[in-house]
Amino acid sequence: xxxxIVRSLNFAPWHVALLALSMVYGLYLRQQLQVISHELxxxxxxxxxxxxxxxxxxxxxxxxxxxxxxxxxxSIQRHFSVPALIRLGSYRSWLYRSTxxxxxxxxxxxxxxxxxxTVTAAGLPLSIDWSATSTVGNPLNQVLGFVSxxxxxxxxxxxxxxxxxxxxxxxxxxxxxxxxxxxxxxxxIYAAAAALFFAQLISFRSRIEAAPxxxxxxxxxxxxxxxxxxxxxxxxLPVIAVIGLCVAGVQYQDRxxxxxxxxxxxxxxxxxxxxxxxxxxxxxxAFELRNEVGTPTDVLFVAFYGVSAEGFEWNLYLYHSIVFLxxxxxxxxxxxxxxxxxxxxxxxxxxxxxxxFSRFILPVAARVxxxxxxxxxxxxxxxxxGGPSADGNALADLRLGQGWVLYQFFINGTLQVLxxxxxxFVIGWLNGRPMAGLFALGCLLxxxxxxxxxxxxxxxxLNSLGYVGLGGQELLRITAVLSVYCLAxxxxxxLIVKSPKxxxxxxx
Amino acid sequence: MDRPHSLGKFTKLLxxxxxxxxxxxxxxxxxxxxxxxxxxxxxxxxxxxxxYALFGPADFFTLIIPFALPLVFPLIxxxxxxxxxxxxxxxxxxxxxxxxxxxxxxxxSKALANIVVAxxxxxxxxxxxxxxxxVVEPSVGVINPYRQTMVGLSPAELxxxxxxxxxxxxxxxxxxxxxxxxxxxxxxxxxxxxxxxGFLLLLVVPNRFVALSIPFIGYHIANFVFAVLTIPQYSPxxxxxxxxxxxxxxVPFVPFTVLAVLALSLAxxxxxxxxxxxxxx
Lengths: 508, 281
Known about the structure:
The structure holds two protein chains of two kinds.
Chain A: H1 2-7, H2 13-40, H3 46-54, H4 57-79, H5 82-88, H6 91-119, H7 132-135, H8 142-147, H9 154-183, H10 186-205, H11 222-228, H12 236-256, H13 267-288, E1 292-293, H14 298-303, H15 314-339, H16 343-350, H17 353-385, E2 387-388, H18 402-431, H19 434-447, H20 472-498, H21 500-503
Parallel strand pairs in A: 1-2
Helix pairs in contact in A: 2-3, 2-6, 3-6, 3-9, 4-6, 4-9, 4-10, 6-9, 9-10, 9-12, 13-15, 13-17, 15-18, 15-19, 17-18, 18-19, 18-20
Chain B: H1 2-24, H2 28-48, H3 57-64, H4 69-80, H5 82-90, H6 93-97, H7 103-140, H8 155-160, H9 176-204, H10 208-228, H11 253-272
Helix pairs in contact in B: 1-7, 2-7, 3-7, 4-9, 4-10, 5-9, 7-9, 9-10, 9-11
């Protein structure tokens, strides 16, 4: 269904009109830029035009936002029908579908914006860096002068601005959709849209410094976000929070209208888990690194430092455990479901216990690299928010080489989490109660302490980036140790699954 | 007229608790095993004490305690009594019990037994190391002599120094026994609190595994969040205050009070809805 909606990104005739209007406005902006550059007597480049256009408050507040709000209202009313609700089954799925439709509307609009900004920049010198004009701090050139001061390349500013506007617009769409769900009256949704429009107009004119999350303009203009949020990545948090509230509101609506609510098991715990992961990354940047980033992997290195051969810091070890042992705990919650004596039917349905096992464990195992990839991407993204480090390279003495950091994080990380999962599976299954798995996690938590695991032979917290300082040889040895454990545990798990006596263990 | 009646009820309750504990904990084998387990950290710390420059029994005491206990403390608290009790729930023992006895009184006696077991276990977990560090070891003299000097401190200041190191070491200025008993009481109270929360959650949350894991998971999540907020003194981990500087004695009671209020409201909820609780049906 997703790809069908995305495929239906068709350009309506009014898009052409919008493009023409944008072009005219872009040319007007370019003329003004030329005047500024002439007065300051410094050359322009393409980024001046593109970013001036993308950060222009008048274009956003008088053209882009009203068009979006109006089209959102129309789209929500068109797609909100009883047959659609019956087909989709719940208000929540309706909201997701409506948001997908909104995404399909959003992409052409953003493309028009970007294309008109780029086309009107034609003829200006190409470059990947800021121009001389934009780095001059001058009242004539306030916005670019301010943004270029943050040490972020212009391409990234462009990406961040588009992401921010896109996410905010989707968020507004979800708010309107929720309003429609709760009231289902035409006048209410249009009134809400009008209120949002005026709120953003007022907010563009005067900022609310005491409560930056109430200031709508902070979520449309990157230079406003830079002043309101430090690090700037925090600006995404309120938007994501509002999106979360919308989803929660729809869930509530679903529950109110249903005698037996459809609930995803563990969705709350997953949400909490993701939130804690993000919190740890932000903590690593803001408190451990003091917002100073030397190389892109600094945030990753500090956040997943875990333990080292010398000792451990409580907060870092706690975060390391929450992320990796927490993943095993989420697995345990799924396993708990299987342990509830339904296994006879499950094994019958899958043909054989071994096939059930492979279908049960493989999706989880496949999620481990995904988790690590997501954490890596998150660390990079959050690292972008930090400024350059004072001494160029805050962690130079601790680091052996970026390659080994990535090796330890991805290869040993995958093996380590697989070990955790298999330990939980084997112990939980042999005992028949999920609590045994939790005790295993508790033991692993203690076993990860460098005082206990000084020889580094217990499969706990061996993927700590603190061990990178020991050198490549040691990391390879850790890989070998973890591989041996993984194989042994896998063998154990297969033996359990193959033996009917152990597999159909009488359990509570 | 009412008084002897309620007193009689109370003694009856205590009798139930005692007989309940007798079945599991008050046998010689279990007691000896538990004592041996509790003495293990002292032995271990004595063995590794050569590598540390300790400045007194109080310092030695902190070397014994914070080894691994802070990481798994709520898990142990729940495992002592609430875990065996959860088996009663899953084996539907209670369903048959409630036909022949008052379910509310039954649960109260179980909750009391839970509190007693957890309190005694954690009290001893701190009190045995205290006895070892302050009473037995000085008279036996197994470990290296304590250091007599410290850079920047005069002998008089060194005398007063141990009382300024951690939260609760203020009690050392009253006397070592005040410190030992005070901290052991504190640990016992916290153990009882976490065990009670686990026990009550078992009655409220339909999923027994989730109920028993909440104290452990919640403890670590709260510790992390409070560390991120840079107010670790208000995190639940202040039960073991040894890796932080000294705070006034009321500070650790802030998270304790919050958790106690939580436990009390859970208890009130269970008490008011005992007859409708799904897990007991």
